[in-house]
Amino acid sequence: MSSNIEELVGNIFTKEDISIQRTISKYMKLLFKWHETNNIVSSSNIDYVIKREIYDSYQLNNALSGNSFSDIGTGGGIPGIIMAILKPNMRVDLIDRKTTFINFLSLVKAELRLENVTVIKKDVLGPNIFFDTDTVVIKNFSNKKISKMKFEEKFSFMMNIIKNNGTASKAYMLTGSPVLELSEECVSKFSLSTTKISSPFFSTSRYIAEVRFEDTIDS
């Protein structure tokens, strides 16, 4: 497993320093080791997770602007840990409500010596939530409170949570093709722009949705 992870990471992060590649590989090894007993990642397939989740997170990182970031519902730290490794001078808050994820993220922070990471146990749909970073990142957020919502309703709900509970001026969502089907009203309200991630590994594509809250329309 070890050599396969290092090879896959090396093929994706070719433009990054070897020390960064080694740190990401170490994170991947910790992730899959914990996944064996705690189910903290979407799949046990190493190739799939690195080629889909980590590659897409890398593309998201390259599209981000901001000086501080909150990764909400971060789970096992994708994309937040990748962001923290690639942006060592930027603060990254990793927020999740589940103790299993928090324990894992705390271990990763210590093992990788990520001084720019803050691990926060919080339900972002609960009371007294506040994001004090200038940018919020969200990927495949799931919660029983919104699980039955249609995509547009869920998207609007989450963006309003972010807008109304903190200082963020921007939000980025790593998501699938349903973002292309949002109504003109929704796109206009949130001043939404989308960027397609062209994957060399899959025929289907994900998208980066960017919202700038200073341009959103209150309603």
Let me know the number of strands.
Answer: 7
What does the main sheet amount to?
Answer: 7 strands, mixed
Measured between the Cα atoms of the first and last residue, the distance is: 51 Å
CATH architecture of the domain at 66-215: 3-Layer(aba) Sandwich
Instruction: Return Rg in Å.
Output: 17 Å
Helix content range of the residues, please?
A: 40-55%
Mean pLDDT: 94
List keywords for this structure.
219 residues; 42% helix; seven-stranded mixed beta sheet; 7 strands; globular; Rossmann fold; alpha/beta
Task: Give the helix/strand layout.
Elements: H1 2-12, H2 18-38, H3 46-63, E1 68-72, H4 80-86, E2 91-96, H5 99-112, E3 117-121, E4 135-139, H6 151-164, E5 170-175, H7 184-189, E6 193-197, E7 206-212
Parallel strand pairs: 1-2, 1-4, 2-3, 4-5
Antiparallel strand pairs: 5-7, 6-7
Helix pairs in contact: 1-2, 1-3, 2-4, 2-5, 3-4
